[in-house]
Amino acid sequence: MRGSTDLRLGLSMRVVEATGYVEPRDALAQDWSVFLKRVLPNVHWIPVPNIGKDVSELIEYWGLNGFILTGGNNIYDAPIRDETELTMLEYATRNTLPVLGVCRGMQMICHYYNQSPLPCQNPHNHVATIHRVHLTDNFLQWDEDELTVNSFHEQCVGTGDHFRGELKSFAIADDGLVEGVINAEKTLLGIMWHPERENPASDFDEYLIRTFFSR
Question: Smallest Cα–Cα separation from 166: which of 112, 90, 105?
Fold first, then answer.
């Protein structure tokens, strides 16, 4: 089992445009620093720049052994970010390192396994709202099988009945869309909601993330 003091997390960043002139920038929501201080107080973490395949060299230089793929940017909207995160996933898979994907991050994990997201058919169910999620595989042995989560995504992933590939869905929304995925090795975990945007974080999200990164 990995001790929390041994974990060095790299967080991916969204690509944003500067106002008034052309200068793409990497950005990380300030919510993440507050969230990680509460949930993983003994873990070292650092934002990872969008530099494409060269990110492998930084991962090794910085000694990163875990990752969080954060939200923002639809897949294909920021190619340099897509390449960076795919490289991070390849590195993590090759070295059996844990990856948590949040919203777009989960979509990228699914994309990595050829289960690409598509525009939500009923976006009002998932954009700037709160909805229920049902735990269909309680691999964490949580006491409840239903959660209430935030939702800010326009892209959705499959349905519980037709989900395919090497990933398994463990959380499903009322409309049948996949809200949580885990791989067989339990090293890749994706959730469509944003735990970092809740202050304080929910008991489930704290438990989920602490348990996942301590395996």
Answer: 112
